[in-house]
Amino acid sequence: MTEKYIIDGYEPVIGLEVHAQLTTYSKIFCGCKVEYGAPPNSLTCPVCLGLPGALPTLNKKAVEYAMKMILAVGGTVRLRSLFARKNYFYPDLPKGYQISQYDRPLGEGGIISFKLNKNGTYKTVRLKRIHLEEDAGKLLHPEDGENYSRVDLNRCGVPLIEIVTEPDISSPQEAYRYLVKLKQILQYLEICTADMEKGHLRCDANVSVRPAGAEQLGIKTEVKNMNSFKGVERALTFEIERQTSLLKSGGIIEQSTLLWDDKRQRAEVMRSKEEAQDYRYFPEPDLVNLVIDNDWLDRTRGSLPELAETRARRFVEQYHIPEYDAGVLTEYRELADYYEAVMKEFDNGKVASNWIMTELLKVINEEKADISEFRLRPMMMAELLKYIQSGEVSGKIAKEIFAEMIISGRSAGEIIKEKRLVQISDDTFIGHAIDKVIAENEDNINKYLSGKNRLFGYFVGQVMKETDGKANPEMVNKLLKEKLDELAR
Fold first, then answer.
1. pLDDT, position 1
2. Which of 136, 184, 410, 457 has its CA at 20 to 30 Å from residue 375's CA atom?
3. 0.70 cut: is pTM over it?
């Protein structure tokens, strides 16, 4: 059981509606290219502009991507679904209606489960539906004080799936975790980049509050215009507190749509909340029913990739790494792919996971780089790890080599050869270094021999310093211990 989120005796009930932009080359009902950042109104045609006589043609790839999402979350693909016209008037909707799905969506049901905390507590959110629809355009509001807006219709007709939850989310934190998990699934399926800054993932939240423990739902409001997962969390926190305060003071919640202002950290009422009848849904007359045959459904199911949880379990079993490591490495598909590419050339899973999670991810995060295109390729990482495992370079020297690899883009072998960084494993050479350290540290040697064993680490450090860090640490420890034991006798 999860701890309930209760404020002044009230608990929230939250449902999320997420629009995910599909990564198809062209739009859902025409051949116009889908491209972020193109010049305004440069990617349009009579179909997506809604000109008289233009007829839509359904994009098969968009249907396939939607089916992948439905199957990945355990939903049911409806073998015969229907497109509908959702009628409303807005400046960025040239047709005056949006082609969507209503009472016969492509997908129904399914669940998304996610970990709530480090204790391993899981939350399961039921999905109500997943359906296809086209996007509207975009209004560009100037910031120079002028009382006008521009309209960019490039986004008209871009393919979306809308993923609608049941009201199963009980706190802003759960909403955040749900969105993180949803993003991971979409990216593993490679059907959506899930980049909220570019509008590729957009979330609307329906939220109400009720007395803690009550069964009946309260009156809900819809919060829009949230452009980050943290923004969703902040907006929900604000709206829950607003509704709770209003009810405690004897006020009444009005069903409405609110716009979240992240700069001002508040939501303002935009309009009264529409009901389904306000949109006057009716079957799209220019499109036939969408029929999915069993062969297509089976092929799509067979094309599903290994998702994060399954891949993490396999990493534990196949590469003998802890569950924590596997969870980190499979958080992003590209990171998991990188690790597996390293493991094709290397045979110690834990050594590889340590280096990737600490050294590599540190650089990736600092540079905000795309690991799939990062200059340090998996083969180069595997080569460095082999030098470490063979004992040819120490861990300390390996970090120096790694840093040089990041800067220069050269291989570990090239750097080792040029700078003569091969680890020294010669007994005689290391023995001479030990003798010198002992001779120069007479007082500390006497303290060690009198029982201050912690000084052993100090002596190891001095020997490594004497050899410029090139001595084999295991051999240093072994030979130094033998020498000190000999002096103690």
1. 47
2. 184
3. yes
